[in-house]
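Schema walk-through. Below, the input block comes first and the output block second. Nothing else is stored per chain. Lengths vary across the set, and this one has 492 residues.
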Amino acid sequence: MGIRDTKMEAELENNIIEYLTREQKYGAYQYITPDEMKLSYNRKYAFDEIRLLTFIKESQPGEFDILRLDTEDGKDKFFKQLDVSIKQKGIVAVLKNGIKCYPSSGTIIFYHALDPKRPSSYDEFRENIFTVTNQLTYSDKNRGLELDLAIFVNGLPIVTMELKSRASSTGWTYKDAEEQYKNDRDPKETLFSFKRCIAHLAVDENFISFTTRLDGKNTRFMPFNKGTIDGGSGNPINPDGTMTDYLWKNFLDKEILTSLIRDFAYISVDKVKKSETLIFPRYHQYRVVTRLVDDVQKNGVGNRYLIQHSAGSGKSNSITWLAYRLVEVDYNNQKAFDSVIVVTDRLNLDKQINDNIRKFIDEKSVVGHANSSTDLKNLLVDGKKIIITTVQKFPYLLEKIGTDLKGKNFAIIIDEAHSSQSGRAAASLNMAVSGSLSNDDEFEIEDKLNEFIEARKMPENASFFAFTATPKAKTIQMFGNVFDLYSMKQAI
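--- output ---
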C-alpha cells in the first residue's frame, strides 16, 4: 500500500477529484473518473483500454474498423505498436503526432489543435476523454501498490501524483512524496518508465515539485511553485483554498494541459552524452511565456517587456518557448510578427534554440543564423520566421527595421540584456553605434538599449522582450517596469 491512508490526505485527494469532475464551461467535456478503471487498466502497457478504444471508435470509426480493434488480434497488434512508439518516441510525440500501425496510414491519439480560425478544431477537441483516477493499482508484480492520483488523456497516462498532508497525523509533506517516488516507485514499472508519463508530481497543501524521470535515489525534483509576494520561494497564502490548488484549478484545465503538452513539453537529446531529457516547464517559465503571448494578443506590436529572471531560471528554454509562440501569435486575426529575432552573445544558444524549435515546428526552414550584416538583411527581407544573431548586429538590426522594413513587424528577444561585452565584439558594436572604435570600451547592450529608448530611436514596428537577471535602475525606468520576476531569492 502507499503511505497515505489518513483522513486529511484522503480529503486533499477528494478535493482534487471533485473539482476536476465538476461541470465546466464546456458542459460535458469535464474530466471523468471511471468506476471500473481498475478493471480496464492494462498494467502491462499502462493503458486504460476502454477509454483508448472508445476514443478511437467514436472519433475515427474508419480507423477502428481498419485496425480491427473489435477483435483480440487487432487490439493486441495495436497495443504492441502503441507501446513500442511510446518507448521509442515518448508520450509527448505520440500525443502530438499519433502513430502508424499497419494497415492504417495513421491513427490520431489526441486532438490538440485549438484554432479559433477553424471552429471544427473545438468539436474535435471535445472528442478527447480526460480522466482522473485515484488509488490506481498499477503494478503487475505487486497488486498491493497504489498510486494516489493519475491523469489520463484518451486512456494514456500523462501525469501522476503522490499527495501528502501537513495537517494529517503524520505531518508528511511534499518532501515525503518525493521520497516515496524515489524509494517506492520502481522505474522498471511501465507506468513509471521514462517517457511514459510527462511529469510525476509531489504535492501537499503548500508546495509542489515535479520530475520527468524517475531514477531511484538519483531522481531530481524541480519546484513548481508560484513564488511568494516578497519574491521568496513557495506559494502565497490563498484565502480561498489551499496554497497549491492552482495545480488542479489552472494547470489541469483541459486547454491549459493541452497547451503544456503541445507547446512546452519535448524531448531534448544530447548527442555527445547520448542521453535524453524530457523537458517540462517550471511555473515561472510557463507564466512568463503565457503572459507575454497574452499581452501581444491584447495590445499588438510596439511594446517593451523587461523580464527579470535570475540565474538558474532556465532562460534558454523560456526563450525557446517564447520564440516559438511569438511566431504563431495573432493580433486582430492576423500574425502579429513577420519574424522573431533572438539577439544573444552566447554562441551555444543559437544551436540550442534551433534544435528545440524543431521539436515544435516541423519545417526545416524555420530558423536562420545571421553571421554577418548581409545574412541578417537577407533573412529579414526573406521573412525567415526565427532569426538568431549576435549583439554586434543590434544597431544595424534596429536601423533596417526602422527604415527599409517599416511594412513588416518584428519581435526582438534579447538574451541577457545586462551581460557585459568586451574585446573584439565590443569594439565592433561601438563602432557600429558611435562611428568610433576603442578597444578599451566596455559595452553593455542594456546601456545601448536605454540610449535608443531615450533617444526615441526604437522602431514602432517591433516589440522588445529583454531577459536579464539583474536590471539596472535606468533599465527599469526606460522599460516602465519589470513585466515578470523570478528573483534570486526564489531561485536560491
